[in-house]
Write a structure and sequence with these properties.
The chain is of the alpha+beta class. It has helices spanning 2-6, 25-34, 53-56, 98-104, 145-151, 186-192; strands at 10-13, 19-23, 37-42, 48-51, 67-69, 74-76, 80-83, 121-125, 140-144. The protein folds into two domains: 2-91 and 174-192, no CATH class; 98-159, Orthogonal Bundle (DNA Binding (I), subunit A). It is 21% helix and 20% strand.
Amino acid sequence: MSDTLYRHSVLMLSKHWLCAATATPVKAFGMMSSGVGVGIDIDVEGGMNPTKWEDWLSLPVREHDEAIHSANLTLRVPTVIIAVNYDKLHLRSVPFSGNAVRHRDKYTCQYCGNVFESRDLNLDHVVPREQKGQTTWENIVASCYKCNGRKANKLIHEVGMHLLRKPFSPRPLPPSKHIQNRYGLKDWDHFLA
């Protein structure tokens, strides 16, 4: 039961029904019982009925629902709730990672312009670390092994190479772009698509 209660398996929407975050069932139940959250009863055809706490307590637990059990109560765990007072969506920066750089660069070597599988690209410091180059969005590009070896620890003009485009930090994204449906909940697909 504790696994069910404390994993982030509830999608939290703003009052405008936009993805805002994920929550645990414990948090969702707390929000619903205090009136700051409303559960969405989503039927198998995709119908969506905002349901207040008092009514949620009497919803039947269907075959595909998760539930918590006590001595006197079996309670359906919501998959989606609305945070009724939450209306601002804060854009979130894309975390820096090798995969994020490859994705930003469209799996294209930024020196030769060829497209590669992710495993066939590495990362290159445009200004090498030996010359005080930082590991930042603005100094790292996707590079094939051949071009990376050719450039080595030199500046691109020293080896007659050119960048396809100047590296940049991706624009911050809305929360829906960061939320992953780790549990494969079909109800989330209505909002993450």
